[in-house]
Amino acid sequence: LIIGASAAALQKNVSVGNPTKVELTCKLDEHFDLKNPQVTWKRGSETISHTSKTQNSWTIQLTISESSQLGSYSCILKGEVEIIATFHLQVPEIEGKDRPIITYEGDLAVMVCKTEYAPMAWTWYMSNGTELVAIDTSSHTDKFRLKRQAANINRLEILKLTKKDIGVYWCEAAFRLGSSKKSFELRVLSIIAPLKPFVAVVAEVTILVTTIALYEVYSKRKEGEREFDQIEQL
Hints:
Elements: E1 9-15, E2 20-27, E3 38-43, E4 46-48, E5 52-53, E6 57-64, E7 71-78, E8 82-90, E9 94-95, E10 101-104, E11 109-115, E12 121-128, E13 131-134, E14 144-150, E15 153-158, E16 167-175, E17 178-189, H1 196-233
């Protein structure tokens, strides 16, 4: 829906995981007075004829049967101003936590992936330099555990964490028209890491108390020396 000239570059993502028919429509808002615009649909630089037209809307119908037909489709309206509205047809993206996952040795890490539509299969990987190594959860049940909460949600648990588990993990959702990936960064801290601030505070307090005690001893000694000097003078 085009509501005004300020929306001169509209963008919209459209998730397409399986072969299907798609209808894309550009429609002018009834309050937006763009007189007699010339409308062209394009995929990249290729011009596409629209299949239906009304006074304020233009539509194309697509049959998406393979991944090469995904991509960007734009309707270009030329009048007093030029307006471009683009639809990005793509396989469903994976939703997941973007911040690093921080936990401690001996604990467990949980990674959850979610998609708009259910994929055909889920696969988890661990980065090994520039390569991705598939995680075989069936033969490492004491280390990895998969929980499928729903067809479009997949959860990986890494048990008994050690420093060797630090790294980047990936989940992949496979659809008929392609696949999507999502990365997770895992950081594993030593179990004494939370104690470090406490130890630092205790050390500072100890130094302060020791300094005060030494100062009092020094002050008393100086006072004793002054009294001894006074007695000698008498």
